[in-house]
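Structure, all two chains, one model.
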Amino acid sequence: MNAAGKLVRSERRLMTPEGVPLRIELAEPGERIAAFLADVSLATAGALVVLLAGALASAGMKVTLPIALFVSFLVRNGYFIFFELRWAGTTPGKRLLGLRVIDRRGGPLRAGSVVARNLTRQAEFFFPAEMVLMTRGWVWRPADILPAAIWIAAMAAIYYLSPDRLRAGDLIAGTVVIASPKRVLTEDLARGAQVFEFTREQLQHYGVKELQVLEDVLREGHNAESARLRAEIAERIRKRIGWTQAITGREIEGFLRDFYRAQRAFLESRKNLGEERADKFHAAGVVAPQARKDTN
Amino acid sequence: MPLTLKSQEFRREREAGWLELETLVSQAQQHGLKSLPTDALRRFPLLYRSALSSLSVARSIALDRALLAYLEDLSLRAFLALYARPVAIGAAIREFLARSLPRAVRSISVHVWIALGTLAVGAVSGFALVNTDEGWYPVIIPAGLAGGRGPGSTREELRKVLFAQTHSGSSLLAFANALFSNNTLVSLLAFGLGILGGIPTLLLTFANGLMVGAFMALHAHRGLGRDFTGWLLIHGVTELGAIVIFSAAGLRLGELVLFPGRYSRTDALSLHGGAIGETAVGGVLMLLAAAVLEGVFREAVANTDQRLTIAFATFLFWTLYFCLAGRR
């Protein structure tokens, strides 16, 4: 989460066959667990329906634990494999959370991969859990649960230690779970008539980072909190660039937009000339306080 | 001063194409690529490539973060719609059984031979040990798995187990019981522990061989060698085959972990891991087949000659399947 309370996912690059790397956002652990719980609930409900129907159809058949486990094995894996194949890497739970399974190297999702990543989930979680169920009825000592718990913890450790948030099944199947891209095209903030004019000197103070923070603020909805924030930022900019007139009330919005437009025009023209001003520390060889993260 | 930014002009010029692509992508996501009219289908790849080029340009000239994020997402959505399409399940299953699976197993044939050899060495050692001294038997076979059979058992007691009719009336129950047996756990462990470098895989396979050999010696001493072979192999060819397959996949996994070559371990796994996953899926299918043979057929066929025939038939089937199917 960033300061504004928005979910920030870690990013990776995916190379297209056309040679343009695309940004992908990895699914967060919480999202994956939630999707998993939703899917398992649905699949378990399906398995119960099958078991009940089976028990009613053949009145004599006893539903024992092994049969129940086997039927839920079939229904569960059938569910995951069917949806991931037919819905191109999504399941109802994943759709709910906006997640998607893709091939790690950017190719099509192969059937073998889908089956492998789902059967591995069986070994990662369900078999250890079910082995406990199978052995002791409903009464367990810590010694019965511990090995299964260690097993599941080790599998979780693989997930947390892997560089791209891959569980063992993803590792083997060559897949990765991403957040489905869905951003829409928003208004260009640089549109509209210019009221305030700025000199070159006044545009020397800020870099790309500050510009984009300003963009985020301008794209926020209007409420008391954002109005206060805008007034504060306008005041700070005014002081920094040496703008002498006071900016008040109605003018704030227009001032910020015009400054954004002028600053962006200036920085984009510098960029075209090969000078990238990353942030306000760009001048005079001042090094930014913390090294910027490499997103690659 | 009328201020027009380059990035603004750029957006104005290309916006129509992006929005058209977005509409097409949304339709393709909801109803599939095939639902698009021919004309749209022809334009799709062109629009996709021009979106990619827009993205490259925007990255180098534009500082509008919302625009960049939109183009990234649009390109990725179009890319996924084009390259990661839904799979037809029937065709995928046929392709897997007819080609991918046997090819995957053949691609790790060295590992299959190593696993088979380890199992065989284990079996011979187990037989030799118990053959010389039945005191080894309880050492090799845990009490939970012996099912009451041991050095103290008489010929009659052992024979009774081999031809027992404990049929519970439900073949599904027998099947499920057979499936959740010790060997399923051993197979999956042999595969999963491959990630630790393959040594536990070899140990598990060897231990499994030991147990088979020890059982064999116990029965052979009481003149039941042939009957036991029938009892074991009717499903054992398939089940031990599954263990060999899983352990071969585990060995390959261990090899990639220990010697990833010039790639990182994750890259090596995603590059060569497909065959491992497919082989393991084959192993699961073999375990299911073995459970049917053990739970249903073994009790139905209480005759050693017929059991051996079925065992031989399954042996022939798996050998031919893995050696010949899907060859070009």
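Chain A touches chain B through 82 residues (CB under 8 Å).
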